[in-house]
Amino acid sequence: MSVLFFDIETVPNRAALKYLPDVAAPSNYKDPTKIKGYVKDKQQALIDSAALDPDMCRIRAIGWGYDDPAKDEIQVLPKLTNAAETKLVKAFWSEYVLAYAQVCGYNILGFDLRVLLRRSMELGIQFPPKMLLPDLNPYKVGPIYDLYEIMYGGRGSSEMKGKTLKWVCWRYGIDKEFDDRSGAGVEDMSDKQVAAYLKDDLRRVRELYKLAGGYYWSSGVKSA
Fold this sequence. Notes:
single chain; alpha/beta; 5 strands; 38% helix
């Protein structure tokens, strides 16, 4: 069975922003104007990062595919409603089951799969009977291939700070130029721009998987 490559794009969940933690200025701040400015800036920073927080985001788009990029499935929600997001997440889980949980992405253990699970919890999406629950253990390779975890030893590593997918692909020749765009900007993109952005990252995941095979696991392996 072939590996299923996938990536998701997220935006802030406006309905969840009420759950953001309260912000207080440091105790050495005495000027009311500076205190107010500090609190405002910190609150805005939390809002700006909500798209990258599994508890504070929603899924706007998911892309997935196997060996042939021409057959990639790129789904972008033109209108983000609970019904539309539920349908999108269900469609991905169905493909995940067909792939027998053998998937590959970048930081999917730390972000993508956790977001999919959190959104499923909130939206009340029940897994199909044959669902293989994602194994979030970062200390093994396959059937989930998290290229970030594999290359950088997990988020808990104090010796090595992980790089972004775009940087890694630039560093190792997959991309000729560095792409400085971030998933945090997806909310401001058009549907067409999101689709192109997602497809580009899906390409990077697929190419990095091919490059890493033979170094981090036996190349050519198609099943766990």
